[in-house]
């Protein structure tokens, strides 16, 4: 079933840029892409790309490469399950409520535009800016240095591109080898989240109080309740940084065959990962799931959350020529180029492109916490006992993010969709990074790990080993991510 929309809003098809004709298979598209998507799915067509699987798709050349066109349809959110297999007219109306909600929000946006006389000025989004990083008193490897102290704003950048000094780069649709390749979470059944620090270079669980959390967020107009709750769950940046710095000041216990810098990064990654697990355990809905489902979700998304955390830190950092670590130190991109190798360096540059894209979209803290929640509750995870609860959480987060973007950024009508596209790119970065690291010479031989939960542990402790989550051998894999992240 196709749903009409308000043509006064003058939206363009996210696939080819043509004028949209209505809601088709999950979102607003033009008639041409609607028909193309329907024929491809119903006829079970399989296309090939004669180029590099990154062809430009626009109104003038959308018919040149059906492979890349279909991949873009999937990337922007067209739904395979919305196409009727029996070829009867009229689609499945389970998307009707979503369409109606989106149409109502667009009507509100239109009314707001008319009321403001087309003078749209968005005030700074509400948020609690974290304090500046403390000065370090430990030594890091050459090439790292502490930045000048400055507050990290929770709202959008002050200028069109802040301090980056470069335009946002276009989103490159990743290559694929099948209809859905590259757009779902990759399966790595042998790469479980593991261990209680058995390696000599891994840091043991650090004693001390749990990570602190900011005072309850009072909120503001137009901020959905879900986002307000997520803001309250965000760890206090200053306390997380202080805990990591304290861990790094402990005597190093590196392996003789690994450089000191590698051991340092390992301990840094352990603590960063601990904060992510602690955040997930406090999230609403997540703590209502069975332990097996909790572990399945974490095993699926922890690496993507690490990458996304890094991306957002660089947006706050606002400097194109260097990268900011979680400890508050900077590393020059020239250092990465010299030490990381060509493949990892290429991924770092691709991550910086994503930073520029999100910076140009004016990603703020409210959207950041909502995107993290969407990563955690991915619908691509299989073998969940309570899939309906995860799906409900995903739908509520999508609705909250859509509400927020339309209310606070009415001049960016497709911001919601662009943010989801950036999540796809971040997921692809994570997948490529894993592939490279598994083939690298310094990556340890993989062993199957086991994730388990101690039913008698206190749920309020922040250290995974103490909180009942066993992370055996995790440092080996996490450290490789940190090598990429710096």
From TrEMBL:
Keywords: Acetylation, Activator, DNA-binding, Isopeptide bond, Lipid-binding, Metal-binding, Nucleus, Phosphoprotein, Receptor, Transcription, Transcription regulation, Ubl conjugation, Zinc, Zinc-finger. Residues 126-139 have a biased composition (Pro residues). The keyword S-adenosyl-L-methionine does not apply. A phospholipid derivative binds at residues 341-344. PANTHER family: NUCLEAR RECEPTOR SUBFAMILY 5 GROUP A (PTHR24086), STEROIDOGENIC FACTOR 1 (PTHR24086:SF24). Residues 10-85 form the Nuclear receptor domain. Residues 222-459 form the NR LBD domain. Signal peptide: none annotated. Belongs to the nuclear hormone receptor family. NR5 subfamily. GO terms for cellular component: RNA polymerase II transcription regulator complex. Residues 110-161 are annotated as: Disordered. It comes from Hipposideros armiger (Great Himalayan leaf-nosed bat). Pfam families: Hormone_recep, zf-C4. One of its GO terms (biological process) is hormone-mediated signaling pathway. It is found in: Nucleus. GO terms for molecular function: lipid binding; nuclear receptor activity; RNA polymerase II cis-regulatory region sequence-specific DNA binding; zinc ion binding. This is Steroidogenic factor 1. Gene3D superfamilies: Erythroid Transcription Factor GATA-1, subunit A, Retinoid X Receptor.
């Amino acid at each position: 079933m196709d749903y009409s929309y308000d043509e006064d809003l003058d939206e363009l098809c996210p696939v080819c840029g043509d004028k949209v004709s209505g809601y088709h298979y999950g979102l607003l598209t033009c008639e041409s892409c609607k028909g193309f998507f329907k024929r491809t799915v119903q006829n079970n067509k399989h296309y090939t790309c004669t180029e590099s699987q990154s062809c430009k798709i626009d109104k003038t050349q959308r018919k040149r490469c059906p492979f890349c066109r279909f991949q873009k349809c999937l990337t922007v959110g067209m739904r395979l399950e919305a196409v009727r297999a029996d070829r009867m007219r009229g689609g499945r109306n389970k998307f009707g409520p979503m369409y109606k909600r989106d149409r109502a929000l667009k009507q509100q946006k239109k009314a707001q535009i008319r009321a403001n006389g087309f003078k749209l000025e968005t005030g700074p989004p509400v948020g609690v800016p974290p304090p500046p990083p403390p000065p370090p008193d430990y030594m890091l490897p050459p090439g790292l240095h502490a930045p000048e102290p400055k507050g990290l704003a929770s709202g959008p950048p002050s200028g069109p591109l802040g301090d980056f000094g470069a335009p946002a780069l276009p989103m490159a649709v990743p290559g694929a080898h099948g209809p859905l390749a590259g757009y779902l979470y990759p399966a790595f059944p042998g790469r479980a989240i593991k261990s209680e620090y058995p390696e000599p270079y891994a840091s043991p669980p650090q004693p001390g109080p749990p990570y602190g959390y900011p005072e309850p967020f009072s909120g503001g107009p137009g901020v959905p309740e879900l986002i307000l709750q997520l803001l309250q769950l965000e760890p206090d940046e200053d306390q997380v940084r202080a805990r990591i710095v304290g861990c790094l000041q402990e005597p190093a216990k590196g392996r003789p065959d690994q450089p000191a810098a590698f051991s340092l990064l390992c301990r840094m990654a352990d603590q960063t990962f601990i904060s992510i697990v602690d955040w997930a355990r406090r999230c609403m809905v997540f703590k209502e799931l069975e332990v097996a489902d909790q572990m399945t979700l974490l095993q699926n998304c922890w690496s993507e959350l690490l990458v996304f955390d890094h991306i957002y830190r660089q947006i706050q950092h606002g400097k194109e020529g260097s990268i900011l670590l979680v400890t508050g130190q900077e590393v020059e991109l020239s250092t990465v180029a010299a030490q990381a190798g060509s493949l990892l360096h290429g991924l770092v540059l691709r991550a910086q492109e994503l930073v520029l894209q999100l910076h140009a979209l004016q990603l703020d803290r409210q959207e950041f916490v909502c995107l993290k929640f969407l990563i955690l509750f991915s619908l691509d995870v299989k073998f969940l006992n309570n899939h309906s609860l995860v799906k409900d959480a995903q739908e509520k987060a999508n609705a909250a993010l859509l509400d927020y973007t339309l209310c606070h950024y009415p001049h960016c009508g497709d911001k919601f969709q662009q943010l989801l596209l950036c999540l796809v790119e971040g997921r692809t970065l994570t997948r490529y990074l894993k592939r490279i690291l598994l083939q690298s010479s310094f990556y340890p031989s993989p062993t199957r790990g086991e994730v388990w939960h101690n039913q008698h542990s206190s749920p309020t402790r922040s250290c995974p080993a103490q909180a009942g989550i066993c992370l055996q051998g995790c440092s080996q894999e996490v450290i490789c991510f940190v090598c990429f992240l710096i």
